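Re-run requested by the PI after the first attempt was lost when the workstation crashed. Everything re-entered from the original request form. Ligand of interest: nicotinamide-adenine-dinucleotide.
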Amino acid sequence: MSGTPVALVTGAARGIGLATTKRFLAMGWRVAMLDRDAAELAVAAGPLEQVLELPLDVSIPEEVARAVADTLSAFGRIDALVNNAGVADFGPIAETDFARWRTVMATNLDGVFLMSQACIPALSESRGAIVNIASISGLRASTLRVAYGTSKAAVMHLTRQQAVELGEHGIRANCVCPGPVRTKLAMAVHTQAIIDAYHDAIPLNRYGSEDEIAAVIAFLCSKDASYVTGQIVAADGGFEATGIGLPALRG
Ligand code: NAD
């Protein structure tokens, strides 16, 4: 195994995944950028150096296997896997039919399981790290998030399973729960009323940025976090810490 460290980032064509890619590049890492949106991936990766484009789907086992094989043949190693690809679908329980439920689970939960499993040999060799992206919607329940919130709560527990079982191979596994960030995913499901409610409920009184989430992800992948595993870190402006009364106290 030789060369500079390599991160495999899923959902890297835009939003938090693209910001995370750029942060790794700034740290001197190489990045395998995986996204099923091949056109958007090509636009995002075009101007970047030291990247590999993987126009693949994390929910399809054969494509997951190809992603890992292609990364290893291009770069020779994998030091960090960032399971960031995700889909959001907000709907009432009664209207969430099995197809909608499975669509959310396929990417948000099956994808994390499949990608992590496929990377174990390479991560064992590098004594690398997994960072899974969950959500504040997995920490606290809210309306309309039966599939999304449940998938993200499962990702948190899957992270602990990975940390406990893979620690003896020297692999660390941690989870980042972002608060709201104005990405395409969030803006498709956040109405103005939801945006206002988030501002009210968040102590820092604002949405986060892609870079603020990427910084936490990169830290957890880095050697600076070499004794941190099995942790769920909310990068959420304090959302998880609050109870009732915050808007009233602000005066
Ligand atoms: P985004 O929609 O901007 O980017 C997600 C990317 O993932 C897209 O490029 C999409 O093509 C890709 N993708 C989706 N399904 C895929 C699949 N099966 N295989 C490969 N690629 C796939 O979203 P984002 O806001 O940057 O979200 C990134 C992660 O952060 C997601 O897991 C999301 O649930 C989580 N998150 C986001 C927010 C937020 O407010 N934006 C809050 C909490 C958690």
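Saved to the shared folder this time. The chain has ten helices and seven strands.
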